[in-house]
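Appendix B, Record 12. Input sequence as logged:
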Amino acid sequence: MTLVLKRTALFVFIVLLWVLVAAAIAHAAPRDIVAMPGFAPGTIVVKTHERRLYFVIDGVRALRFPVGVGKAGQRWTGVTTVDGKYVRPAWAPPDDIRRENPRLPAVIPGGARNNPMGEAALTLRGVDYAIHGTNNPASIGGFVSHGCIRMYNRDIRELFQLVQVGTPVIVER
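Logged structural output:
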């Protein structure tokens, strides 16, 4: 009888632990789903004045992510597409950034703590910018970059799974 009680107690403990872990995971990164009419499903829309990126789910709803966007004089608008998907990309600072900080190395390896690209990057056709993670999460929500769109690493990993090369990207003020 004691063995049956011990096994029952162990079973109940395991089930409760599983429920608590599942609840923690579900609430760890809540995602806003908001109204977003007027855009085709699968489109990425960045509204720089809101410092938000939207991934359009259907014709009327989108996932909303906080982002960091270009500083004054370095913001841009336009229409492009995703032309590359990279996990833990290396980063070669462009000339304008190297002029500001000549001590930067020519290339920072992917996964390095000082690599500003974070966990993943979506490169954009026809522009020198990307949508990418960050090594500085405190920068999300600000006007902080040289034109790239920065996301929390957990968010770029989610977006990375949702998009393909060729995904339309619209950047608005």
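The chain has two domains: 1-30, 32-172.
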